[in-house]
Design goal:
mainly alpha, 10 helices
């Protein structure tokens, strides 16, 4: 059952990522190399790509190794994509009205895929192996992403999200917004660890 779900989920997530790339290429205002860089500048795309890679790995794995789960990787990507969904629903949905294929892909990336990952986490994460001590390690990915986006934005003037647009908001406000998002990552991570430990104890 786990492998079957992994195959189905991998196909859904890969479709969303590839289709979004196609849509962005079709509507590009810059060359393909710059468009590709901008595509992977979105946290949504990077996170969904991680999810697609994870499900693909689970689908093709020929062993029953739980190394990825025992290290908390599934919990980490669940935190990331849960925040992708929440930020979109709270901050971005009202300012974006896609149509046609764009609407389908948008819902997959921001609504459906987060729910798929959360369900997979509930079913298959090795919850007894996750701990609060892992949270700093889970923060590395979003922090590196943030530093990259701010650095590249200072050169290209392209910021994928309005709340980190230094040219429009100023560096001070962006740093405040960034600190708030880091706090959200910490709180969400702690909630998943708490829930995981509770479920682990409950199943004993």
């Amino acid at each position: 059952m786990k492998r079957t779900l992994s195959v189905i989920f991998a196909l859904i997530v890969w479709f969303a990522v590839v289709a979004q790339y196609y849509i962005m290429l079709e509507n590009r205002v810059t060359g393909i190399p710059e468009t590709t860089i901008r595509f992977f500048s979105f946290f949504t795309i990077l996170t969904n790509s991680l999810v697609a890679i994870y499900f693909t790995d689970q689908a093709i794995s020929v062993t029953k190794s739980t190394r990825a789960n025992s290290s908390g990787f599934l919990t980490a990507i669940t935190v990331y994509i849960t925040i992708v969904g929440l930020v979109y629903q709270i901050l971005l949905r009202q300012i974006w009205e896609p149509q046609g294929l764009s609407m389908l892909v948008d819902e997959l990336l921001h609504s459906v895929n987060p729910l798929l990952v959360i369900c997979f986490w509930f079913l298959y994460e090795n919850k007894s192996k996750i701990s609060y001590k892992q949270i700093p390690k889970w923060l590395v990915f979003p922090l590196v992403y943030l530093i990259f986006i701010l650095f590249r934005g200072s050169i290209s003037q392209f910021y994928p999200y309005a709340f980190i647009d230094v040219s429009a908001l100023g560096l001070s406000q962006v740093l405040i917004n960034s600190a708030a998002l880091v706090l959200v990552f910490v709180v969400m991570s702690a909630l998943f660890v708490f829930k995981g430990r509770w479920l682990s104890k409950k199943s004993v």
